[in-house]
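Record passed on here:
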Amino acid sequence: MGWQDSHLHAFEIKNRHYVMPGVDEFGDFPDDLIEDGVKIAELLDVGDSFVYEYDYGDNWQHLVVLEAVSSAGPALVRAVCLGGERACPPEDVGGISGYAYFLDAVGDPAHEEHDEYLVWVGGSFDPEAFNVAEVNARLQRLG
């Protein structure tokens, strides 16, 4: 997505909830599993899907589908994005409703928060932008 991984997240895979280490230090959710060391390839078959939730406050919900598994050359060591649409919403934009407000503001030079949002997002924002090569370069850099 292009986010900074600075918020809590979880994966719901085949009715099991995988969370970040330290999320439930008091044991309030004993059925949660720690995500570290879990490999998607060991949990899913082609055609399976799962839900990825990012930033519990903004509540971004993503449906991820495993479309295919293939042998990759040594240059590809991680997942590969086959395609996509539109830009990633900025980190901390406020979920779906906050993103809609943000798009209104950056799209309307007369909006009272237009300039402030453009400064916040780094000067410009194209909601239609998507570059699959850039996404795959990020995926391959993941540690």
Remarks:
- The chain has a mean pLDDT of 87.
- The first helix runs from residue 40 to 43.
- The helical segments are 40-43, 95-107, 114-120, 132-141.
- The first strand starts at residue 9 and ends at 13.
